[in-house]
Amino acid sequence: LQGIIQAYKSGITLQGNTTSLGRWDYSGSFFFSISAITTIGYGNLSPSTAVGRIFCIVFALFGIPLNLVLLNEIGQLMLLGVQHCACRLGEVFHWQNKASFLMKTCALVTGLLLFLLLPPLLFSEKEGWSYEEGFYYSFITLSTIGFGDYVIGMNPDRTYPGWYKNVISLWILFGMAWLALVIKFCINLLD
To answer: What is the tens place of the pLDDT at every residue in 8-63?
Structure first.
């Protein structure tokens, strides 16, 4: 029994009469990399060898700062897009202040849909979670709290498509950039 538990912790899962390295395949490794450099750290998967731990430390030392730069660039591109749309709308309808407010509201609503309200539907479908559990996972992930009580792709009774973890990894990156913009906007309102 201890051997089975250790194998499961190492990422080996039983699939009928065969085994799979499930969590350490390409998409699982990519997801692990994203959770490490975003500092989410669900705690469900970790290196088990000294070499793996050292590599993880070096990877995080370079990956975390690079990820912060990437998130900042993504956020600035999102903000630039909103500002560009607001300028164009202001030019067309000749109401600059209303256009800026309208575009910021649209960006907020679009982000809410894309990053917090619609993903729980996917999680309900793929993970079997309730909508509330999926919403909770979305917020806990994008805010980088990452308790680890809900982690995608970990149910051995379910089969996940190959694209699933990769798409969720990209969702995490863009969602964190959007949430950082929302927090920055709220801080600016308090000034």
So the answer is: 666 665 555 444 445 678 888 899 999 999 999 898 878 888 999 999 999 999 99
User: Model pTM greater than 0.85?
Assistant: no
CB-based contact 42:148 (threshold 8 Å): yes
Helix (H) or strand (E) holding 20: strand 18-20
Decide: residue 56, CB within 10 A, 0-12 exposed, 13-18 middle, 19+ buried: middle
CB contact burial 123-141 (16+ within 10 A = b; e otherwise): bbebbebeeebbbbbbebb
Q: Which domains does the chain have, with CATH numbers?
A: 18-190 (1.10.287.70)
| φ, ψ of residue 4 in degrees (nearest 5) | -65, -45
Asked if residue 157 has pLDDT above 90, the reply is no
List Cβ neighbours of 126 (8 Å cut-off, separation of 6 or more): 152, 158, 160, 161, 164
CA of 149: how far to CAs of 35, 145, 146, 165, in Å?
14, 11, 8, 17
Alpha helices per DSSP H over the chain: 2-9, 26-37, 50-93, 96-111, 119-127, 131-142, 163-190
The separation between the first and the last C-alpha atoms of the chain, rounded to the nearest angstrom, is 58
